[in-house]
Design a protein that fits this description.
Blueprint lengths: L1 H30 L7 E15 L4 E16 L1 H11 L3 E11 L5 E12 L12 E2 L2 E2 L18 E5 L4 E13 L2 E15 L12 H6 L3 E13 L4 E14 L9 E11 L1 H48 L18
Antiparallel strand pairs: 1-2, 1-12, 2-3, 3-4, 4-5, 5-6, 7-8, 8-9, 9-10, 10-11, 11-12
């Protein structure tokens, strides 16, 4: 009976010990992915910002500028691309909507971002665009890979349509969560005017005829939870200028928008809570279950060996039968 039990325990020990690395190195890369139907929104605010009044073409101080960012998964488009890409794909339709203190639109820039659901690497397919212009992204955008590393990454900037390094600057704690801090500086760059302008009658084409151009720079900062690769907080020191041309009435340049854009407090709280929840799910596949199964396998192996040792230990000598004759001495 002991031998049978030890063999069963040994089989279970081998099973759980083998399951540990399989869960971490085989199952996790296949199970951890961004859902194709994900929807998320984010509200950021720039207080005491500078904004261009297109009526007077003069910059003025305003109490706040609000930026609403939305990302909506297109499941049908993702499935269509998967048939030719041969891997799990996510298609995000994004919109960055900027409004002034009066609630009126300042700019509205849509984009379509197509990427690998597991690695977050860009997937190039028809429809990839920023503000209607076809693009071919390199590097990440919006989200870091699962199990983010302490290194620099290539990050796509939608305004310039270019990819630049975003630098790892150290490990910090944000609202009780261990995070990696990343920072990217995009130097002053000439960028296209938004297709949708805030004043009726003004179009990118009409502005271009005046010789006026749009320039942009930003310092982009993210605090990223490394297990999930999700930013828990982000901000930008954002500046835009119109330069040259007859539209400015002889001036060399005028500020179109300048402000320190930060996540609104209620969205910070929501994001931190969501990331903590998702972090636990990822840790179940990368740490808790693999190490737990390994420890269980070792414990079962030890128990099996103990039972086997008990089964092989010599039995105690039997007592002499009662009434046995005593030897007779000569």
């Amino acid at each position: 009976m002991r031998r049978t039990a030890s063999l069963v325990l040994l089989a279970c020990a081998v099973f759980f010990a083998a399951l540990s690395p399989l869960l971490r190195w085989y199952a996790f890369p296949r199970l951890a992915k961004i859902p194709a139907n994900q929807y998320q929104d984010m509200v950021l605010v720039a207080k005491d910002a500078t904004l261009l009044d297109y009526g007077t073409m003069k910059a003025k101080k305003v109490p706040r500028v609000t930026v609403v960012q939305t990302l909506k998964g297109d499941v049908a488009a993702a499935k269509k691309i998967e048939r030719t890409a041969g891997r799990d794909v996510v298609v995000w339709d994004g919109l960055s909507y900027v409004q002034g203190p009066d609630g009126k639109m300042v700019s509205e820039i849509p984009e379509r971002y197509i990427f690998d659901a597991h690695s977050q690497e860009p997937v190039h397919a028809t429809g990839e665009m920023v503000d209607g212009d076809p693009v071919k992204r390199e590097g990440i955008e919006f989200k870091w890979p699962f199990l983010t590393e302490k290194r620099d990454y290539e990050y796509f900037d939608a305004q310039t349509r270019t990819t630049n390094p975003i630098h790892y600057k150290g490990t910090q704690t944000f609202r009780g969560v261990k995070v990696y801090y990343f920072e990217q500086t995009v130097p002053w760059t000439k960028v296209p005017l938004p297709k949708k302008m805030p004043v009726q009658g003004i179009t990118p084409e009409s502005v271009a005829k005046t010789g006026t151009t749009r320039w942009y720079t930003t310092v982009r900062r993210f605090w990223v939870e490394p297990i999930t690769g999700a930013p828990v907080y982000g901000e930008e020191i954002h500046k835009e200028e119109l330069r040259g041309g007859t539209l400015l009435g002889g001036r060399a340049k005028v500020t179109a928008f300048a402000g320190d854009v930060k996540m609104r407090e209620d969205y910070i709280e929501h994001t931190v809570a969501l990331v903590k929840q998702n972090r636990t799910l990822v840790l179940m596949l990368t740490s808790y279950l693999p190490w737990g199964f390994l420890a269980l396998g070792i414990a079962l192996l030890a128990l099996a060996l103990w039972l086997e040792a008990l089964g092989r230990r010599p039995a105690d000598p039997r007592p002499a039968p009662a009434g046995a004759a005593e030897p007779v001495s000569a």
